[in-house]
Amino acid sequence: AQTVTQSQPEMSVQEAETVTLSCTYDTSESDYYLFWYKQPPSRQMILVIRQEAYKQQNATENRFSVNFQKAAKSFSLKISDSQLGDAAMYFCAYGEGNYQLIWGAGTKLIIKP
Amino acid sequence: SQTIHQWPATLVQPVGSPLSLECTVEGTSNPNLYWYRQAAGRGLQLLFYSVGIGQISSEVPQNLSASRPQDRQFILSSKKLLLSDSGFYLCAWSSWTGNTEAFFGQGTRLTVV
Q1: Cβ neighbours of B2 in A, within 8 Å
Q2: Gap from A40 CA to chain B (nearest CA, Å)
Q3: Which residues, other chains included, contact A69 with Cβ-Cβ below 8 Å and sequence gap of 6+?
Q4: pLDDT in the model for residue B96
Q5: Is the CB of residue B104 less than 8 Å from the CB of residue A45?
Q6: CA B41/CA B33 separation, integer angstroms
Q7: Considering CB atoms only, which of A91, A95, A98 is closest to B43?
Q8: Do A43 and B43 touch (CB under 8 A)?
Q9: Number of Cβ within a 10 Å radius of residue A83
Q10: Closest to A85 measured CA to CA, from A35, A46, A34
Q11: Disulfide: which of A44, A59, B75, B98 matches A97 by Cβ 3.0-4.6 Å?
Protein backbone atom coordinates (compact mmCIF):
# COMPACT_ATOMS: atom_id res chain seq x y z
CA ALA A 1 0.00 0.00 0.00
CA GLN A 2 1.08 3.53 -0.65
CA THR A 3 2.46 5.51 2.27
CA VAL A 4 3.59 9.08 2.78
CA THR A 5 6.18 10.01 5.39
CA GLN A 6 7.01 13.45 6.72
CA SER A 7 9.95 12.93 9.04
CA GLN A 8 10.05 16.46 10.47
CA PRO A 9 7.29 17.02 13.03
CA GLU A 10 8.40 20.64 13.44
CA MET A 11 10.67 23.07 11.64
CA SER A 12 11.59 26.65 12.36
CA VAL A 13 13.10 29.31 10.16
CA GLN A 14 14.05 32.94 10.48
CA GLU A 15 11.85 35.36 8.60
CA ALA A 16 13.18 36.02 5.07
CA GLU A 17 15.26 32.84 5.12
CA THR A 18 14.69 29.66 3.13
CA VAL A 19 13.36 26.40 4.56
CA THR A 20 12.89 22.95 3.08
CA LEU A 21 10.26 20.48 4.26
CA SER A 22 10.81 16.82 3.50
CA CYS A 23 8.39 14.21 2.21
CA THR A 24 8.99 10.68 1.04
CA TYR A 25 6.49 8.21 -0.29
CA ASP A 26 6.27 4.61 -1.25
CA THR A 27 4.50 3.37 -4.35
CA SER A 28 4.87 0.85 -7.14
CA GLU A 29 2.96 3.05 -9.57
CA SER A 30 4.60 5.17 -12.24
CA ASP A 31 1.77 7.64 -12.80
CA TYR A 32 0.63 9.64 -9.80
CA TYR A 33 0.34 13.10 -8.33
CA LEU A 34 1.90 14.77 -5.34
CA PHE A 35 0.64 17.76 -3.40
CA TRP A 36 1.65 20.09 -0.63
CA TYR A 37 -1.14 21.57 1.45
CA LYS A 38 -0.94 24.31 4.04
CA GLN A 39 -3.17 24.42 7.12
CA PRO A 40 -2.91 27.75 8.96
CA PRO A 41 -4.36 28.29 12.44
CA SER A 42 -7.75 28.86 10.83
CA ARG A 43 -7.59 25.09 10.06
CA GLN A 44 -8.71 25.39 6.43
CA MET A 45 -6.59 23.24 4.12
CA ILE A 46 -5.13 25.21 1.24
CA LEU A 47 -3.36 23.73 -1.75
CA VAL A 48 0.16 25.13 -2.08
CA ILE A 49 1.58 23.24 -5.04
CA ARG A 50 1.10 20.08 -7.10
CA GLN A 51 3.42 17.90 -9.14
CA GLU A 52 2.56 15.34 -11.80
CA ALA A 53 4.91 12.37 -11.67
CA TYR A 54 5.27 12.24 -15.45
CA LYS A 55 6.70 15.76 -15.49
CA GLN A 56 10.43 16.01 -14.94
CA GLN A 57 10.31 19.74 -14.33
CA ASN A 58 9.85 20.73 -10.71
CA ALA A 59 6.70 22.72 -9.99
CA THR A 60 7.00 26.31 -8.80
CA GLU A 61 4.45 28.72 -7.37
CA ASN A 62 5.94 32.09 -6.50
CA ARG A 63 8.06 31.54 -3.35
CA PHE A 64 7.18 27.85 -3.19
CA SER A 65 8.98 25.21 -5.20
CA VAL A 66 9.45 21.48 -5.00
CA ASN A 67 12.37 19.14 -5.49
CA PHE A 68 10.82 16.04 -7.01
CA GLN A 69 13.13 13.04 -7.12
CA LYS A 70 11.06 10.24 -8.66
CA ALA A 71 13.65 7.50 -8.35
CA ALA A 72 14.25 8.34 -4.73
CA LYS A 73 10.50 8.83 -4.12
CA SER A 74 11.17 12.17 -2.53
CA PHE A 75 9.09 15.33 -2.78
CA SER A 76 10.42 18.22 -0.72
CA LEU A 77 8.95 21.71 -0.48
CA LYS A 78 11.19 24.75 -0.48
CA ILE A 79 9.85 28.04 0.82
CA SER A 80 11.99 31.02 -0.09
CA ASP A 81 11.92 34.41 1.65
CA SER A 82 9.83 33.00 4.50
CA GLN A 83 7.08 35.26 5.77
CA LEU A 84 5.18 35.29 9.04
CA GLY A 85 2.07 34.25 7.14
CA ASP A 86 3.76 31.02 6.11
CA ALA A 87 3.49 29.71 9.66
CA ALA A 88 1.22 26.68 9.46
CA MET A 89 1.05 22.92 9.34
CA TYR A 90 2.21 21.58 6.00
CA PHE A 91 0.94 18.27 4.69
CA CYS A 92 2.31 16.22 1.85
CA ALA A 93 -0.22 14.09 -0.06
CA TYR A 94 -0.10 11.41 -2.75
CA GLY A 95 -2.80 10.59 -5.27
CA GLU A 96 -3.19 8.21 -8.20
CA GLY A 97 -6.15 9.79 -9.88
CA ASN A 98 -8.66 7.54 -8.21
CA TYR A 99 -10.66 8.85 -5.31
CA GLN A 100 -8.27 8.99 -2.46
CA LEU A 101 -5.32 10.99 -1.30
CA ILE A 102 -2.76 9.45 1.04
CA TRP A 103 -1.60 11.98 3.62
CA GLY A 104 1.55 12.49 5.60
CA ALA A 105 1.37 13.33 9.31
CA GLY A 106 2.36 16.95 8.72
CA THR A 107 5.17 19.33 9.60
CA LYS A 108 4.60 22.35 11.80
CA LEU A 109 6.46 25.34 10.40
CA ILE A 110 7.39 28.13 12.80
CA ILE A 111 8.57 31.47 11.46
CA LYS A 112 10.82 33.46 13.78
CA PRO A 113 10.54 37.24 13.38
CA SER B 1 -15.67 29.39 -9.85
CA GLN B 2 -16.16 26.47 -7.52
CA THR B 3 -16.89 26.96 -3.84
CA ILE B 4 -17.49 24.60 -0.97
CA HIS B 5 -19.55 25.41 2.09
CA GLN B 6 -19.42 23.48 5.32
CA TRP B 7 -21.39 24.17 8.47
CA PRO B 8 -21.54 24.66 11.34
CA ALA B 9 -18.04 25.92 12.10
CA THR B 10 -18.21 24.81 15.71
CA LEU B 11 -20.52 22.48 17.55
CA VAL B 12 -20.80 21.30 21.14
CA GLN B 13 -23.03 18.29 21.61
CA PRO B 14 -23.79 16.05 24.60
CA VAL B 15 -22.95 12.37 24.52
CA GLY B 16 -25.78 10.36 23.01
CA SER B 17 -27.17 13.20 20.94
CA PRO B 18 -27.50 13.02 17.15
CA LEU B 19 -25.19 14.75 14.69
CA SER B 20 -25.66 16.27 11.27
CA LEU B 21 -22.91 18.14 9.45
CA GLU B 22 -23.63 19.45 6.01
CA CYS B 23 -21.43 20.26 3.06
CA THR B 24 -22.43 21.71 -0.30
CA VAL B 25 -20.41 22.43 -3.41
CA GLU B 26 -21.20 25.08 -6.01
CA GLY B 27 -19.91 25.64 -9.51
CA THR B 28 -19.20 22.06 -10.52
CA SER B 29 -21.14 18.92 -11.39
CA ASN B 30 -20.74 15.35 -10.24
CA PRO B 31 -17.87 16.05 -7.86
CA ASN B 32 -16.20 13.42 -5.76
CA LEU B 33 -16.99 14.26 -2.15
CA TYR B 34 -15.09 13.40 1.00
CA TRP B 35 -15.40 13.57 4.78
CA TYR B 36 -12.15 13.63 6.73
CA ARG B 37 -11.45 13.75 10.45
CA GLN B 38 -8.36 15.33 11.90
CA ALA B 39 -7.16 14.74 15.44
CA ALA B 40 -5.28 17.59 17.11
CA GLY B 41 -1.82 18.02 15.57
CA ARG B 42 -2.29 15.05 13.29
CA GLY B 43 -2.91 14.30 9.63
CA LEU B 44 -6.18 13.56 7.90
CA GLN B 45 -8.15 10.38 8.25
CA LEU B 46 -10.56 9.65 5.40
CA LEU B 47 -13.96 8.66 6.77
CA PHE B 48 -16.21 8.51 3.71
CA TYR B 49 -16.11 9.30 0.05
CA SER B 50 -18.75 9.46 -2.64
CA VAL B 51 -18.49 9.37 -6.42
CA GLY B 52 -22.19 9.93 -7.06
CA ILE B 53 -25.65 10.37 -5.56
CA GLY B 54 -26.40 7.61 -3.12
CA GLN B 55 -22.92 6.08 -3.53
CA ILE B 56 -21.02 6.10 -0.26
CA SER B 57 -17.82 4.28 0.58
CA SER B 58 -16.68 3.96 4.17
CA GLU B 59 -13.03 3.80 5.02
CA VAL B 60 -13.22 3.41 8.76
CA PRO B 61 -16.00 1.53 10.59
CA GLN B 62 -17.28 3.74 13.37
CA ASN B 63 -20.20 5.50 14.90
CA LEU B 64 -20.72 7.76 11.89
CA SER B 65 -22.54 7.54 8.58
CA ALA B 66 -22.68 9.65 5.45
CA SER B 67 -25.30 10.36 2.83
CA ARG B 68 -25.40 12.14 -0.51
CA PRO B 69 -29.02 13.07 -1.20
CA GLN B 70 -28.12 15.47 -4.02
CA ASP B 71 -25.25 15.73 -6.47
CA ARG B 72 -23.48 18.48 -4.58
CA GLN B 73 -24.60 17.79 -1.03
CA PHE B 74 -22.79 15.56 1.43
CA ILE B 75 -23.99 14.95 4.98
CA LEU B 76 -22.16 13.38 7.92
CA SER B 77 -24.40 11.95 10.60
CA SER B 78 -24.51 10.04 13.82
CA LYS B 79 -27.48 8.71 15.75
CA LYS B 80 -25.70 8.80 19.11
CA LEU B 81 -22.46 10.68 19.60
CA LEU B 82 -19.61 9.27 21.63
CA LEU B 83 -16.88 11.23 23.42
CA SER B 84 -14.41 9.76 20.94
CA ASP B 85 -16.26 11.46 18.07
CA SER B 86 -14.82 14.81 19.12
CA GLY B 87 -12.48 16.26 16.54
CA PHE B 88 -12.12 18.48 13.52
CA TYR B 89 -14.14 17.39 10.50
CA LEU B 90 -13.34 18.50 7.00
CA CYS B 91 -15.43 18.17 3.87
CA ALA B 92 -13.67 18.21 0.50
CA TRP B 93 -14.41 17.79 -3.18
CA SER B 94 -12.40 16.87 -6.24
CA SER B 95 -13.19 16.62 -9.90
CA TRP B 96 -14.98 13.47 -11.06
CA THR B 97 -12.26 13.06 -13.66
CA GLY B 98 -9.76 12.18 -10.98
CA ASN B 99 -6.12 13.17 -11.18
CA THR B 100 -6.75 16.38 -9.36
CA GLU B 101 -6.31 17.88 -5.97
CA ALA B 102 -8.99 18.08 -3.31
CA PHE B 103 -10.51 21.38 -2.24
CA PHE B 104 -11.57 21.77 1.35
CA GLY B 105 -14.29 23.45 3.33
CA GLN B 106 -13.48 25.45 6.42
CA GLY B 107 -14.08 22.55 8.76
CA THR B 108 -16.23 21.86 11.81
CA ARG B 109 -14.84 21.68 15.31
CA LEU B 110 -16.99 19.11 17.11
CA THR B 111 -16.77 18.75 20.88
CA VAL B 112 -18.78 16.00 22.51
CA VAL B 113 -19.34 16.63 26.21
Answers
A1: none
A2: 11
A3: A75
A4: 73
A5: yes
A6: 24
A7: A91
A8: no
A9: 11
A10: A46
A11: B98
